[in-house]
Amino acid sequence: MPAARDQATVYDAFRVTAARHAERPFLCVLDETARVYGISAGEISYGAFAAEVATLQNEYAKAGYGSGLRVGLLLENRPSFLRHWLALNGLGVSVVPINPDLKADELEYLVEHSELCAAVVLPKRRRDIQMAASANDRDVVVFGPEDSIKEHREPCGAPSPPNAATECALLYTSGTTGRPKGCVLDNTYFLNCGRWYLDVGGYVRVTEGQERMLTPLPLFHMNAMATSTVTMILSGGCLTVLDRFHPKTWWRSVKQSRATIVHSLGVMPPMLMGAPPSDLDRDHHVHFGFGPGVDGRLHADFETRFGFPLIEAWGMTETGGGVVIAAAFEPRHVGTACFGRIGAEGEARIVSDDGRDAAPDQPGELLVRRAGADPKHGFFRAYLKDSEATAEAWTGGWFHTGDVVKRDADGNFHFVDRKKNVIRRSGENIAAVEVESALLQHPGVAAVAVGAVADDLRGDEVFACVVARARDLDDAQRRVLATDIATHCLSRLAYYKAPGFIAFIDALPVTATQKIQRGVMKDLIAKLAVTPDAIDLRHLKKRSV
What we know:
Elements: H1 10-20, E1 25-29, H2 31-37, E2 42-45, H3 46-62, E3 70-74, H4 79-89, E4 94-97, H5 104-114, E5 118-121, H6 126-135, E6 141-143, E7 167-173, E8 181-186, H7 187-199, E9 212-215, H8 222-235, E10 238-241, H9 250-257, E11 261-263, H10 268-274, E12 288-290, H11 296-306, E13 310-311, E14 313-314, E15 325-326, E16 346-351, E17 364-370, E18 382-383, H12 387-393, E19 399-407, E20 413-418, E21 422-425, E22 428-431, H13 432-439, E23 445-455, E24 459-468, H14 475-490, E25 501-504, H15 518-528, E26 535-536
Parallel strand pairs: 3-4, 3-5, 5-6, 9-10, 9-11, 11-12, 12-13, 24-25
Antiparallel strand pairs: 1-2, 7-8, 8-18, 14-15, 16-17, 17-19, 19-20, 21-22, 23-24, 25-26
């Protein structure tokens, strides 16, 4: 397999591959993506990209960047994201990818919590990051991806060569306690994601120097940043990163990129299946795709129509490549939410509510760990500044996933539900408490509880049950208020977190200590969702241009 597998850092792995295969393409920028971003289309070779990274790395070094610092990257899915990441990784600097959809409150939290010393930001968002830093009295230097590197003003310890244990990135993931948690991820985490991918086998075949991967997923998530990018680096493959998923031009992008592997999320197959048949449906070279969360009702038909297996899988930001479970071998039990068997590198338990190991086909929480001497190998290191949450997640020496699954008699895992109060909409994790906090700032809201409602297209949609301060509102007044509440939320949080539905109720179900009864809320939302009381606001949820 690829020579880069034995390297200690992501930059080392890239450098080795670039030295061996300088002429092979590393990145492919399609015409459509180039037009959106205003950049050049075409392929960039490993050798050419390595030269650009080396120049940038030298500039960072001269400006005093080194181990122990964190630099934010708000660069969308542009090649500049990878250029700055690799340059900084070679110096031992951790990067903090920033979701471009975040609004002021969210940016203020991220800048303060992550302790950024600098941020590389698109010109149109520079002021947003500067204001977020100012709100926290933080001295963050902000510059554009093509600007000269500005010296940071925080003290940096004596430079030390980065190694496998050096922090590579800080990725934020939503939990159930409101604010997103920062997952500290080292180089081992990132390299292990790629190594797992290369070793899966079955339908997941990766040939060195031959694969071309297409992904529309964001680089600020681990899937594209750790799994897709590092897999291509380790195997000398070519990566095509779209600005986003465009259903109308997807198959054209697949053909133009000459993709052999594609990545998707559950929201994509319904859109593609809803389009009329086309000659492009099978005019491609794809031999497999990863599509976690695919609707079971569409899975088999999707594979028949488009001509390649869509691999169901399970993973989390916290687990990385330490434990990933994928249905890469037959029988895959297509259409049953089956995500395969655990490999020899991992161990798993399914625990029922009474703490006992669940019987076959009995649902319970999935607990995982790495097999061998180090149960945390390849996992996240910790939640930044939250040792209590980290310890809780690893209670009893097992990582508690919060996902409810069941295992059949043959050892296959099947997804059932989420134990955590997290809404997963189109691949984005949304903490109900965070949305509730934003809604409670509206003057017309006396109390609110937020939960998930099933959505055929996006998996989950955000549903808010609101107790209004004004009583005896008629239908027209409720609709006006609902629209105003949603608009208020859209001005404070990323568009996907705003409620897609609002229903007004007289009182929230709470415990004796005034905590929301989430189980009761789940049932209430399911009932309200099929009544005229559920005011549909999904048309307001639009990504900012």
